[in-house]
Amino acid sequence: MTVATLQSLLSTGGVQSAIQRASHKTGVDFSYLLGQAQVESSLRVDAKAPTSSASGLYQFVEQSWLGTVKKHGAEHGLGWAADKITQGPSGRYYISDLATRDYVLKLRNNPEVASLMAAEHAADNKAELEATLGREAGGTDLYMAHFLGIGGAKKFLSTLQRNPETAAAQLFPAAAASNRGIFFGEGGRMRSVSEIYDRFATKLQRGVEIAAGGKSLPPVAAPGRPDAAFQLAVIEQQDRPETATLDQLLASADRPNLLRPTPDSAKLAYMLLASMGA
């Protein structure tokens, strides 16, 4: 790989292009993946958490990354990596060869691989959350699963449905101890699950807008596999010039959360990337 190619890949436009390709391939909403990456790493592929094993564009911790690659790697040309990952009796994932383990973990810093695994992980979480909650899972629900893990998210969101004023720190004392700014307000007041949920929703949406250079994108949506209309929109958009401006497309796409990408959201992703020279 040449220096110029590497610099292009690591640029903001290159990262957003990788996210768009992952969205197209998996059907997970582009704006959700873009907002999550902005919130987690500010679109930096080499981001590293100082207090945990989290690393890369989507800040996967080691166990979550190995589990996702084990489950979905073969679907995206990483069968060799998936085959090397073993799940022990305790449920933990490991790779016996240390050099191979290090290489697989470093794939978290590859925007193409990280975006695909983040999309697959979001789709898995969506299915589990909907089975538990009995409703459709939106972008903020998925981010709660990323933040608390799927078990923690089920507990949090079930409590949100039953008693939204419950103090979240009482439910998650360990997470609260590590994230006081999220669980506690001024003067040490414990925030409710409703307050934290609303703050995450705002943070995620703001992440989308920052990543889009100040543009207001549609509200982050829940993921779904691509339908024929979505695939056709991407193909058509790549094969012909777009007559509408990016601002017009953004305005026309301002609508409630979507369950899956639509032709408009496909065009929106393409126009956003094109406006940034990606």
Structure description:
This protein has 278 residues and is an all-alpha fold. It has 2 domains: 3-45 and 110-275, Lysozyme (Orthogonal Bundle), CATH 1.10.530; 49-109, no CATH class. The protein is 62% helix and 1% strand. Strands 1-2 form a two-stranded antiparallel sheet. Strand 1 and strand 2 form a beta hairpin. Helix 8 (139-162) packs antiparallel against helix 12 (193-211) and helix 14 runs antiparallel to helix 15. The longest helix is centred in the middle third of the chain and has 24 residues, at 139-162. The two termini are 18 Å apart. 40% of the residues are buried.
> What series of H and E elements makes up the topology?
HHHHHEEHHHHHHHHHH
| Amount of beta strand | under 5%
Q: Terminal Cα separation, in Å?
A: 18 Å
Q: Report the top-level CATH class of the largest domain.
A: Mainly Alpha
The class by helix and strand makeup works out as mainly alpha
Give the CATH architecture of the largest domain: Orthogonal Bundle
Radius of gyration: 19 Å
Give the fraction of residues assigned to helices.
Answer: 55-70%
Largest sheet: 2 strands, antiparallel
Low-confidence stretches are 1-11, 224-268, 270-278
Total strands: the figure is: 2
